[in-house]
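Example 3.2
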Amino acid sequence: MCVSGIMATLSDLPDLVLLEIFSYLPVRDRIRLSRVCRHWKRLVNDGWLWRHIDLSVYQVRPKVIWHLLHRYMTSRLHSLRLGGYLLSGSQASQLSPALMNALGQKCPNLKHLCLHVANLSMVPVTSLPCTLRTLELHSCEISMDWLLEGQNPTVLPLLECMVLSRVPAFRDEHLQGLTRFRALRSLVLGGTYRVTEMGLDASLQELSYLQRLEVLGCTPSADSTLLAISRHLRDVRKIRVTIRGLSAPGLSVLEGMPALESLCLQGLHITPEMPSPAEIISSCLTMPKLRVLELQGLEWEGQEAVRILRKGLPHCLVVVRACPKESMDWWM
């Protein structure tokens, strides 16, 4: 960089610009920067730089998390991603209730916690930071009684969004346990194969306040899922389902849904019973607030079916895209 004929270095940049640059670096590189000079050490210690921490790309031992908690995590921390704890062997490191409790006390503004490949068998839901608004569990292990303790209203009172992806122990009883979270408005179930049609229907009856529901690669068919939604989630705004078992009569149960704004149908292939474009248009035209129809992985891009859908739904944005990688894994 040259300013007025004088060569400028990285250190000549304003602190705010340096902090912005540092924020894009992995955690390990941020810490290494603190060894460059005193100026950069002061910048690395700035709480603004540690608002969002992603450790899911590392297999970080709990003792390292404790160090980061004491050294860098402050009241400015808003989101944290952890992963790599579900290791084989009796000596495998695990997250602990003490670590979760300390995290909640040290970081009172933590709103988003995302756990990847974590063993939560010894971590009750009561130990999670009570300030969380979003909780994501990806390929995690939970105990059979997780979420099944007494209905304590002080547990995660602000939780608005929960994502459960490939959590093999999650079943109907756990889903029923989500009804304790009265602030919950968004629920994503991905590959939770122990959840049954009856369990989903019974739970949605008590989760009638949900505004977003995604059921992807699960045991219930698309028809049974949409039927349960139409019965109990009259205020739902966003629906995303996989098309296994989706038929024209199954889709028609959504006709007249008063608040539905976005509908996503996802699958690897178009199934024989899949509604035709004309049948999809017929159902969608009865939804007064529908503005987005998304088709993921259905191989309709560039085909006549897509043109028909876009022409028949001029008030909707018809989006055709590939199926997300994490969703493809649920069919493997």
